Amino acid sequence: MDNYKLVETFSEFKEFKNIDREAMMRIIEDVFRGMLNKKFDCDTNDFIDIIVNVDKGDFEIYHNRTVVEDDNLADPLREIKLSDAIKIEPDFEVGEEVNEELRIENFGRRDILALRQNLQTKVAEYEKENIFQKYKEKVGQIITAEVQHVWKREIVVVDDEGIELILPKSEQIPADLNAGKKGDYDLYKKGDTLRSIVKSVESVNGSPVVTLSRTSEIFLQRLLEAEVPEIYDGLITIRKIVREPGQRAKVAVESYDDRIDPVGACVGMKGTRIHGIVRELRNENIDVINWTTNPVLFITRALSPAKITNIILSSDNTMANVYMENDQISLAIGKGGYNIKLAGKLTGYEIDVYRNSEANNAEEDVDLQEFSDEIDQWVIDSLIKMGCDTAKNVLSYTPEEVANRADLEMETVKEVFRILKAEFEQDAE
Fold first, then answer.
1. What's the predicted TM-score (pTM) here?
2. Is 221 within the bounds of a domain?
C-alpha cells in the first residue's frame, strides 16, 4: 500500500464543511506525529518532517539524518552511515543531510488502522468543538434555518452548513404547534424555513446541543432591531419587553432625541413595521409604549387602551390600586387577563383594578389616627384592636356593638360616634 492509496482511505476527511484547511492540516499532522512518536519511542520533531497537502489530499513523510563515517554511528535515528547514504544517492558526503521518504509499507496494517481511527476521533472532536464555539458566539442572535424533521413536537432544523439545531416545544409559540394547515399534528414540514434566536449551547456527552427559542423576549427585541433602523442605530432604546408568547407583548421604548417619536417609529407608517413582526409571532398583539420614570404615568400607559381615572400607589411602591369606570375594566384586564398581567410585569407593580364608586368611598373615609386630637389614644387603640382603623369602619357598627367589642363605656362610644359623624357632616357642607 503506497501513500496515495492510504490517502484514498482518508478522502472523506477533506470534505468536512466545518473544518478549515489549516485546522485539517494540523489534525492530520498531529495524528501522524503521534503514531511516529509511538513507533520510534521518542519525540520525532527534530528528525522527521510531515508535509500535508489537504487540497490535493496527499502527504509526505521524510526521515532526516546526517551522514557520518561508518565507524562513527552513534544515533541511528538521527545519523546514517556513509555506506548506506551512497546507496540512496552516490554523491553523498560526510556531514550532509539525507532526506529519505518513509513509505507506508514501513508502518504495517495495524499502524494504518490505528492512524485512521485516531484521525476520525480527532476530526469528530474538532467538529464538535468548532460547532460549540460558533454557536456560543451566536447566543441571542436571530438565525434562519430549514426544518429537517419534527419529532414529538420538537422541531429539528439545519443551518446552511448542515448543523442540526433544536427548537423544543417549550420554546415554540403555541400557534407554531399547528403551523400550516388545520390539524392537531400538522406541524412545520420538511423544507420550511424558520426564524428564531439561539437561546443556549450546551455540551451533552461531549456533543454540542444548540437550543433555539421563539418565545424569548430577546427574539422580539431582535425582530424590532431588524425592522426599526432607529433602534439598530441606537436612536431609540428598548427599555423593557414582556411577553405572553403568541398572545400579547408590551414593549417600553425611549428616545433621547425629542424629534423622534419612539412609538411611531416602531409602529411605522400605517403599522407597516410592526405588522411584519406580528405575522412572524403568529398574530401576537404588540403594545409599544413610551418609557417614563413616573410610575403613575407608566402604569397608565401600560394599561392602555383602558382609560384610568385615578391610581393610588402603596407606600413601599409595590402595589397600585387603579380606579376606572365600569366599562373600562374589561379593557384593562384584557382577553385572558393578559393585559393587566403584562402591565404588572412591565411596571413592576402588583396592579388591582377598582370601579370609581369604590374609589369615592375610599377617598371619603378617614383614618382613626386623624382624630387623635379629639379622641384619647387609648380609645383609638381599643377601636383598632377590635378591627376598626377608619371612621367608616367604626360607624358601620351600632354604638352597642362597639361598646361590646371594644370593651368601652357607652358614654365614650357615643362621644366617638358624635366626633366621627361630625367629620362627614362637615365634608358634606
1. 0.68
2. no
